[in-house]
């Protein structure tokens, strides 16, 4: 019997550095590389150090300290073929992809990888990419309406023999895809992730997505978002999506060392690039009716890690970070999407020093829950035989 999300151990993903500039917009040394050879080595290391997922980023146009990028779907397939267990999530933009074309690519990638392909549907924040390519730019809530149709079309094509959709953005007429992706009762099609902080994003996640990714958040922010997404799912009469949280992890032997690394990252921030990025993304939150969009309340320091990863607070000793991860899990976080300064060294450090402590704390909590569920003075059933 499969574990319920509440019983399942915390899962871990990492941001694939297939974009130049690393995961912080800073001139601090980042021992990472956007090339394939480095990323192939990293993927194998990651799956051997407790990582179940990897997320390939997507940028189409050189900008904001990210001058060079590898395309996400092709790069994801390459990483899938280089690994044995790692699930790789390719980020894609509705408006630049047609769902039928992506469905075909995804089915092939799924077969080639033995069922490890996944997709992250990005509603889009970078207006400059769309206008540079001559594609229409939609305002915030319209982008989410399009993304929702995109997901509905994708799922229909992956699971139905004669897919139909009469939408405002996509029209699918008696479309049959063969072969379908690999499927099982637990995974009827490749997993569909989405991100976003806005009210529209939360509502969409509840209606159509398998996973909801949040930008970096503290405990209160996570609790609020999970509540809203679960309410949306309940209103739609479907199981709630699982919840992923972005975090930039700085684990060092002492808290002082970790805090000094954070201080240096911010002190050496590429001010021009951070401000350029901020100008491009903060309009996304400002364009929502209730001003709840991504990056709406991000400070300059937050934007140095461009998905607010410092806010999650995974900075300190292995013990401190493990305790915080389990505290987030207690609030409903299923998956931690992590970025690092020096990927190879820090992914291995995570696997050797942080992950065992997380598993130890999880086991301890499960033991306490089992003790609490056992009537006083009565031994567990297993102990009575």
Automatic annotation (TrEMBL):
Keyword Transmembrane part of the UniProt annotation: no
One Pfam family here: Bac_luciferase
Low complexity composition bias: residue spans: 372-385
Superkingdom per UniProt: Bacteria
Keywords assigned: Flavoprotein, FMN, Monooxygenase, Oxidoreductase
Domain Luciferase-like: 12-334
GO molecular function ontology, one term from the record: monooxygenase activity
Region (Disordered): 366-385
InterPro entries noted in UniProt: DMSO2_SphG, Luciferase-like_dom, Luciferase-like_sf, SsuD_RutA_monooxygenase
Keyword check for Flavoprotein: yes
Annotated protein name in UniProt: Dimethyl sulfone monooxygenase SfnG
Organism of this sequence: Streptomyces bugieae
């Amino acid at each position: 019997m499969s574990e319920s999300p509440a019983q399942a151990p915390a899962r871990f993903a990492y941001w694939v550095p297939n974009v130049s500039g690393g995961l912080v917009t800073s001139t601090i040394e980042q021992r990472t590389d956007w090339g394939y050879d480095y990323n192939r080595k990293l993927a194998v290391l990651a799956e051997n150090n407790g990582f179940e997922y990897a997320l390939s980023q997507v940028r189409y146009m050189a900008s904001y300290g990210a001058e060079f990028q590898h395309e996400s779907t092709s790069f994801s397939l390459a990483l899938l073929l280089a690994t044995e267990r790692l699930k790789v999530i390719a980020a894609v933009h509705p408006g630049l992809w047609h769902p039928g074309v992506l469905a075909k690519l995804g089915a092939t990638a799924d077969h080639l990888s033995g069922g490890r392909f996944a997709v992250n549907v990005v509603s889009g924040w970078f207006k400059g990419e769309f206008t540079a390519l001559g594609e229409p730019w939609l305002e915030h809530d319209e982008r989410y309406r399009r993304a929702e149709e995109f997901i509905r079309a994708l799922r229909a094509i992956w699971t139905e023999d004669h897919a139909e959709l009469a939408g405002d953005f996509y029209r699918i007429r008696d479309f049959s895809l063969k072969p379908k992706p690999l499927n099982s009762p637990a995974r009827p099609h490749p997993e569909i992730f989405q991100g976003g902080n806005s009210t529209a994003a939360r509502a969409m996640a509840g209606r159509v997505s398998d996973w909801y990714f949040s930008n970096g958040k503290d405990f209160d922010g996570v609790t609020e978002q999970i509540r809203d997404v679960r309410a949306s799912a309940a209103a739609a009469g479907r199981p709630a999506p699982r919840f992923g949280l972005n975090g930039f992890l700085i684990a060092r032997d002492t808290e002082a060392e970790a805090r000094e690394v954070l201080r240096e990252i911010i002190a050496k921030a590429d001010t021009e690039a951070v401000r350029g990025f901020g100008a491009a993304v903060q309009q996304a939150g400002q364009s929502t009716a209730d001003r709840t969009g991504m990056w709406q309340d991000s400070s300059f320091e937050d934007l140095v890690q461009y998905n607010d990863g410092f806010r999650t607070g995974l900075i300190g000793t292995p013990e401190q970070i493990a305790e915080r991860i389990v505290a987030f899990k207690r609030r409903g976080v299923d998956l931690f999407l992590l970025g690092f300064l020096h990927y190879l060294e820090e992914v291995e450090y995570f696997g050797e020093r942080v992950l065992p402590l997380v598993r130890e704390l999880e086991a301890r909590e499960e033991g306490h829950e089992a003790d609490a569920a056992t009537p006083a003075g009565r031994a567990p059933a297993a102990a009575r035989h």
